[in-house]
Structure formats: C-alpha cells, structure tokens
Amino acid sequence: xxxxxxxxxxxxxxxxxxxxxxxxxxxxxxxxxxxxxxxxxxxxxxxxxxxxxxxxxxxxxxxxxxxxxxxxxxxxxxxxxxxxx
Length: 85
Hints:
The chain is of the alpha+beta class.
C-alpha cells in the first residue's frame, strides 16, 4: 500500500489565473472568496466543464484531507478536465 510520500505534492496554495494557462475561469477571485475554501473541506463542482474552477479549488485543498467531487455530463469536456485534474 502506498502512503502520502509516494505521491507528488500539489503546487503551492493561492494560485493566480496565470497559473492555470489552459483555462482562465470566469470570476476566479470570487470563487475562492465566496466558497471560503478550507484546506480540509469537501466541495462539489456540478458543472465541471474543462475543470478550471475545480483546478482552483483543488490547489487550495490540503493533500489527503480536502476533497472535490466533479460532475460533468459532456464527454468532451470531461476529457479536457481529466488531464490537469
């Protein structure tokens, strides 16, 4: 069984829109402010799309504690989100 040391650690917290060059989500700062993302929280992105907002939330979560559930109906959008997430 692998432990946390076997996995690559995520990038530092507090990303900027420029750190997500693939897709700059609308309302970037507002997402973090209004969701009040906590490092050990559980979040649902029910409109995952290309994963821009999900990527922002994931970078705020503490490795191994916080969780994000992404939901997407469109297979082409899901394919776009799969690689970076």
